[in-house]
Design brief:
The chain is 53% helix and 5% strand. The protein is mainly α.
């Protein structure tokens, strides 16, 4: 259950929005293995994320909050469609007649992360 006593005060001149703040806390809440568990940051980030998700008037009033939550939520269908579109794009690259273009669809080791990515993503 979210902590209802948490207050969020944002300076309008700081160019920080409730959406960006919420996203930052949700990102922190989802990260693991960064040593934050020992100082309680993970638990606090989870509390903030739950508070933001459960606050019915986060964006002013209930109606606006519901509209924005629906607009910013990625459904499973949307995620599948996005993945299919990305894979279609790389299928087109892989079928291109020029070898230099086809190479962008190859997977290579990401130099910054421990995973494979399409060469196109690494180059970008």
């Amino acid at each position: 259950m979210a902590n209802p006593t948490i207050n969020l005060i944002i300076d309008p001149g700081a160019n920080i929005t409730v959406e960006s703040t919420t996203q930052a806390f949700q990102t922190l809440a989802n990260q693991t293995g960064h040593g934050n568990l020992h100082n309680g940051l993970d638990e606090e980030a989870n509390d903030w994320a739950r508070w933001a998700q459960m606050n019915p008037t986060l964006h002013g009033d209930k109606e606006t909050t519901e509209c924005l939550k629906k607009a910013l939520t990625a459904t499973a269908t949307c995620q599948k469609q996005k993945l299919a579109t990305v894979m279609h794009f790389f299928g087109i690259l892989a079928a291109h007649p020029e070898a230099g273009v086809r190479a962008h669809a190859d997977t290579i080791d990401d130099p910054e992360m421990d995973c494979d990515l399409f060469r196109f993503f690494v180059l970008v």
